[in-house]
Amino acid sequence: MSILKDYAAYAEHSGSKLKPFVKTMFYCNIFFRISYVLYKIKLIPLARIFWLFNRVLFSVEIDPRARLKGGFVILHGTGVVIGYNVVAEGNFKVYQGATIGGNVGKKRTANGRTFSQPWLQPDVVIGINAVVAGPVILGAGSRVGANSVVTRDVPAGATVVSNNVILAEKSEVVL
């Protein structure tokens, strides 16, 4: 179940099995998971209420149509936006002010899938105030630095700084 993976990710990040319960952003994940389930069973007005709870209580906007597998962690979530149809295949971390989504009607096909929003592979980290826009793929283990703007694919293990500048592939840089 996704919420259990979210709990495990928060516990691993904080180094304690009890700390997720005092992390406000963990509750943001719970509200998103409820919103997602309600959307899937076509209770859209209720889904929007939980979406609104996240927006008002935590200043985090995660569209209920986003397909985020369990294990994501939001750190200092104020201003985080995750758009509709964003796909995340596994664990990822998002820092404050990051925006994931947005496109101007662009669609793309890769690996047999058509998508219009970012596609995050496992273990991605998105830094403070970073923007990941359009149908791009962030490879497994990639890092997006603070204030970066990503509009093109990022290879697995790469670190992006500034505007689509790949600093290094398989970098040891810690954000």
Explain what the structure shows.
- The protein is an alpha/beta fold and about 180 residues long.
- It has one domain (about 1-170): Hexapeptide repeat proteins (UDP N-Acetylglucosamine Acyltransferase, domain 1, 3 Solenoid), CATH 2.160.10.10.
- It has 3 helices and 17 strands.
- The chain has helices at about 1-15, 25-40, 45-60, and strands spanning about 60, 65-70, 70-75, 80, 85-90, 90-95, 100, 110, 115, 120, 125, 130, 135-140, 145, 150, 160, 165-170.
- The chain has a 6-stranded mixed β-sheet.
- A hairpin with a 2-residue loop joins strand 8 and strand 9 (about 115).
- Helix 1 (about 1-15) packs antiparallel against helix 2 (about 25-40) and helix 2 runs antiparallel to helix 3 (about 45-60).
- It is globular.
Report the CATH superfamily.
Answer: Hexapeptide repeat proteins
Looking across the biggest beta sheet, what order are the strands in?
3-6-11-14-16-17
CATH architecture: 3 Solenoid
Helical fraction equals 25-40%
Beta strand count = 17
- Rg of Cα set: 15 Å
SSE run? HHHEEEEEEEEEEEEEEEEE
Shape designation: globular
Oligomer: single chain
Average of per-residue pLDDT values: 89
Tally of DSSP helical segments = 3
CATH level-1 class: Mainly Beta
Distance between the termini: 29 Å
Strand percentage lies at: 25-35%
| Contiguous runs where pLDDT drops below 50 for at least 5 residues | none
What structural category arises from helix and sheet content? alpha/beta
Number of domain modules:
1
> What would the CATH topology be?
UDP N-Acetylglucosamine Acyltransferase, domain 1
